[in-house]
Structures are given as C-alpha cells and as structure tokens.
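Marked as duplicate of an earlier ticket. Keeping the data here for the record.
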Amino acid sequence: MDFPEINHGLLPVTKGMRRAVEKLGVRAAQELLYWGELVGAERAVAIGAVNEIVPTEEVASRARDVCGVLRQKDRKLFHAIKRSLNLTAQMSDQALEKMTVADLDAYVTAESSTKARARFLSKNSKG
C-alpha cells in the first residue's frame, strides 16, 4: 500500500485514503500519504499493512498452512467475525451489538458449535 500520486501532483482517491486510515490508523496513513514513498517489507509489517514477511520460495507453502488452519474454524462463526470486523467502522455500537447478538444466537444453536464448545470445555476441565 502506497500513494505515489502525491509525488506527481495528484490527489489520491478518497476511498484509498479512507481504507488506509481504517486499516492502519491515522498516523501510518499520514506517513504514507504525505511522503508518497514506496514502503519496504519491514516497514509494512511495522505499520500493520501486512501480517508477516515470507521468503518467496515459501509463499505457497505458508499460504497452504494458513488456509489449512482457517478451514478448521467453524464457517458460521468465521463468517460472523469477518462481517463484524468489516462493518465495525460503519455501524453504531447499538447496531453492532444487535448484529453480534443475532450472530451469537445463530451460532450457539448450530450443531457444529456444540462440538467446538465440548472440545473447549473438556480441555479447560482437565486443568
């Protein structure tokens, strides 16, 4: 994520600026927008633009590993979390809470969540 437009006398698109603020915070977005410089991998990690750096030859393997872990999560729960994260900035606290309660109700009553809770409870009862 970078905004080299400023170096050419152009205004970055509003949506891009908004997304930078949402994803990185105001300070990191300001840095990218004001300077207009390309950001290296280490700096991208530091400001939260990327999660991790992986050597080129390991990208496919790492992607498979991450996808394998994420595929093990309950789909309904994962969908609810993704939706909440994507809509958080656009919703009032009350609307977000209402949506979350509805999602929780749908998840808790789903058969698939029963197994996940049973595994969690069995792990915690051994301690």
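See parent ticket for discussion. The two ends are 45 Å apart (CA to CA).
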